[in-house]
Amino acid sequence: MTRKVWNKKLIKTVFGRVWGIDNGWDLKILMQDDCTCYIGLSFIDRDLYEMVVEMRPWLLNGGVLFVERWPVSAEWKNANLSTFPCWVRATGIPLQLITEKNIKKIANQAGEVMDVQFESSQKAHWRNYICFKAIFNMENAVCPGRFVSGPKKQAWVQFKYERLPIFCYKCGFIGHEQSHCENLQEMILDIDGLSVPLFGPWMHSNNPIKHCFDGATHGAGASLKKHGLLERFKAKKALAGASSDVLLPENMTARPAGTPGRSSPC
After folding, report:
1. pLDDT tens across 57-112, in order?
2. What is the pLDDT confidence band of residue 5, given thresholds at 50, 70 and 90?
3. Quick one: which of 150, 159, 99 has its CA closest to 129?
4. Are the CB atoms for 148 and 248 separated by under 8 Å?
5. Is the pLDDT assigned to residue 252 strictly greater than 50?
6. Residue 187 near residue 253, CB atoms below 8 Å
7. Whole-angstrom Cα distance, residue 67 to residue 185?
8. Is the pTM of this model over 0.70?
9. What is the per-residue pLDDT for 230?
10. Is residue 91 within 8 Å of 129, Cβ to Cβ?
11. 89-113 burial, b if ≥16 CB within 10 A, otherwise e?
12. Using H for helix, E for strand and C for coil, what is the string for the chain?
């Protein structure tokens, strides 16, 4: 996925630099349009092949390379290039909720879970995050996180992604940036009725901003906006009224999440 025009020589050069090897593989451009270039890759080295598939997606020269094994039907158009695996850090989980069962529930909000790294609640609390690997669908917005029912009050669990491809800080969808997005900014209300951007740079694992509410105070998102008494009352009611038996209550948003014809953020 890219907005640039690619040719075989350029692709070989860029991929070779990223993978650290120029020989033992080849490619064929299958089709190219305004924003997508479809290529077929062949490998002599089995280890290189497994590395390219396992470490997908690849961020390459302003574009994103989504990789899938060649379909059994031998028809490249049957390949599913709308999903990819990604490691995620879930931060801000209250200590009392850090159990293997709850972690899997939380991870399932992001996508189909492949692996969860969980040793003990004490270690997870000391690190302040849980790592899990999930399969994401590009037809859905990236899940920013969730409110969870803590022992005394609601807590926000922020998802921070490793090697996340280009995605929009306005709508949360992968493949474009906010400067190319015509959708409205997705917002979320905190317990005080303050509206902050739901998506932002804090969703990257290497970003020091803790979460979306912290992001607004650091100037990484839109300015905070005070809502009226009714909106604030609804926000507090939604948080206070969540059942303690349900780990993941409905998320509070300043407006319906998502855009017509597409799935909304989880």
Report:
1. 777 766 777 888 888 787 887 777 778 888 999 998 888 888 888 888 888 888 88
2. low
3. 159
4. yes
5. no
6. yes
7. 30
8. no
9. 54
10. yes
11. bbbbbbeebbeeebbebbbebbbeb
12. CCCCCCCHHHHHHHHHHHHCCCCCEEEEEEEECCCCEEEEEEECCHHHHHHHHHCCCEEECCEEECCCCCCCCCCHHHCCCCEEEEEEEEECCCHHHCCHHHHHHHHCCCCEEEEEECCCHHHHHHHCEEEEEEEEECCECCCCEEEEECCCCEEEEEEEECCCCCECCCCCCECCCHHHCCCCCCEEECCCCEEEECCCHHHECCCCCCCHHHHHHCCCCCCCEECCHHHHHHHHHHHHCCCCCCCCCCCCECCCCCCCCCECCC
Residue-wise pLDDT tens digits, 104-137? 888 888 888 888 887 766 666 667 788 899 988 8
Choose among 104, 136, 108: nearest CA to 117.
104
Check if the beta carbon of residue 72 is closer than 8 Å to that of residue 97.
no
**Alpha-carbon span 10 to 29, nearest angstrom:** 12
- Share of residues in the chain with pLDDT > 70 (%): 74
- The whole-angstrom separation of Cα 166 and Cα 13 is 21
For helices 46-54 and 8-19, angle between their N-to-C axes, nearest 10 degrees: 90
CA distance 101 to 162: 23
How many angstroms separate the CA atoms of 161 and 27, rounded? 29
d(CA 135, CA 235): 31
pLDDT band at 142 (very low <50, low <70, confident <90, very high): very high
Number of residues assigned to the chain: 266
For residue 11, give the nearest of 3, 93, 26 by alpha carbon: 26
Other CB atoms within 10 A of residue 246 CB: 11
